Amino acid sequence: MQSTRANITELLKNDYFVQWIVSPTAQSEHYWSKWLQSHPEQKKAIEAARQLVQSAHYTIDEKMPEHLYNNVLENIVTYSQTRKSRTVHFPKINWGPLRVAASIVLLISIGLFIAQKTGFFESNNIDIVAKVTKSTEWGQKKTINLPDGTIVKLNSGSSLSYPDIFSSELREVELVGEAFFDVEKDKSRPFVVKTKNIKTIVLGTEFNINAYSYNSVASITLAEGSVSVEPIVNEISSSKEQMILSPGEQASLDFTNGRFYKKEVVVADIISWKDGVLLFQNESLKIVFDRLSKWYGVDFDLTESLAQSNCLLNGEFKNESLETVLQSIALVHELKIEFKNDTMIEIRGDTCK
Q: Does CATH number 2.30.30.60 belong to domain 131-270?
């Protein structure tokens, strides 16, 4: 803990670090991003120092004289000692000479702010919780291990945000897109997943959430255990209804009319994506190629007749290459496929065969 405090102090005394927080440039963003990659153990120190700097709301101007800066440090150290807390030093902030008195007041206010809002001075531990965001591009999938032991499989084009340390009362994450959750059981700390329009509360279970922003419906599908699902009251829905799901049930919120409902589903089909299975069940070619685009991270150029055709496709592909899937579809529907480049594929052919 002493080393963490020392690292925070050194960061706050580093003019280049302060300038990065106050007025970031492409150069400073690159430097500190690389620095953090090389020193991942300093993540908490960075977040703590960032909060201290951002709470000041100052601009970089002329530099405070060294002797006055030292006086400011002495005042803050004295204050922190009277509170029986850690000593925290602040950066060499650049102030105009005529604003020295104001700067001293402001710096001591920073100490008070942190003491009151985060317990920085009173606590024996640095209580700075960093927010972590993991994302996937189209064509990518990712497995995420959360701090409590929960395992999340993140589908393509999705993001998951969570604290690097969960609180003693609650485990809350935020999802955009689709993910499958295998939640570590902890009766004393509910696990909450929030999307833009719906909230899911569990203690320990397995479930899937599909909440892509481009869809007109968000859905929660339960594989094991039990979950509580409720809409978030906003412009989409005013419902305060709460649903308890049993395995094999799916709760959905329709964004077009605010309807909140549940039904029985085949869970294995809905969560097959997490095992690398691409499943088509009576789907039009337009929907098929739209899903392939997101699954593999490529674009398709379809003729208008194909996009509007009534051709339906059934098929199951497990961990297959894009080329294999396209060859199978082309064989069934007599399509011509041409790779224009690595990300653009042209699809040509007559109407349904």
A: no
